[in-house]
Amino acid sequence: VTVDLSDVSGAHVNGDRSQLGRATKNLMENAERHAVSRVVVGLHEVDGSAVLTVTDDGPGISEQGADLVFERFGRLEEARGAETGGTGLGLAIAREIVERHGGTLRLVNPGTSGASFEMRIPLAGA
Predict the structure, then answer these.
(1) Sign of the Cα pseudo-torsion (18, 23, 25, 26, in order)
(2) 28: closest CA among 50, 6, 56?
């Protein structure tokens, strides 16, 4: 899998470096697990938030599965399901960490091919 980091810039947030690193790692591992050949990462400052996007070119997530992927042990029956080796904890843990930092984590494009997740954390001083 190729990881494209060309759209990453810097952003300064207040928070636990280890925990935010874990949330980011969980997003990246999820994308790499389900990608066919490519993961694209972006990081920008937008409206007082650091916005990290992680997008893969895999099978995507249905609209029905959009909430399930954030539940502990939530695993889809379709192509992003149990046979791919995930525990069903990574995205749930990532969302909990992000919310503890005053942010949000959401699936951007349910029902399409590929999956794109958006993590928003308030900028330091915002």
Answers:
(1) positive
(2) 56
The position carrying tokens 């249905």 is 62
pLDDT tens per residue across span 45-86: 999 999 999 999 999 988 877 777 887 755 555 444 445 555
CB 55 within 8 A of CB 8: no
Global pTM reads: 0.87
Let me know if 6 is exposed, middle or buried by CB neighbors in 10 A (0-12, 13-18, 19+): exposed
For β-strands 49-56 and 104-107, DSSP reports them as: unpaired
Say how far apart CA 25 and CA 84 lie, in whole Å: 17
